[in-house]
Design brief:
about 160 residues, 4-stranded antiparallel β-sheet, about 20% helix, alpha+beta
Length: about 160
Amino acid sequence: MEQRIGSSSKPLEGAGFDPAFIPGLTSPVSGEPEDAEPADAEEPLAQEEAAPGEPETAEEAETEEETAAEGPVFEASDRRAKIVADAKGVRLSLDEERCEFGWDEIGAVETESPRFGKRFTITVHTPDRRWYPIEIEATARADFKKWEEQLDAVLDAYFEESD
């Protein structure tokens, strides 16, 4: 079974931002309503206010880090790839590409250690039948067993299978 990357058809010109757009009958709508004021007229936000998801003080930031660090954490990396699994979810990175999955977005996590060689493969499967593999090159084959145990501990602690 092959996984398609992207769509082979291009979206219609106006359908991406206006569901009522009918090609040939209406023209694309600009992103701004006619009666909108220019962006310069808006009042600037207070610099002191923190964004909703960001901690306001250094103490709150430390508390959040401690909360995340309380449970088991799995981390493996080589010169190109990295995987981190903790209370927040699973984060994969390969070179400059990164993706993050919360535990509610994950259908399964599969591991594979080769019979020969030192490339340990971890694949994250999502419920919509997509998969995201990453290969980590180990310094020694003994790392495979250690990584399997650490990943199992994280999955047992945070991953809940829905029946």
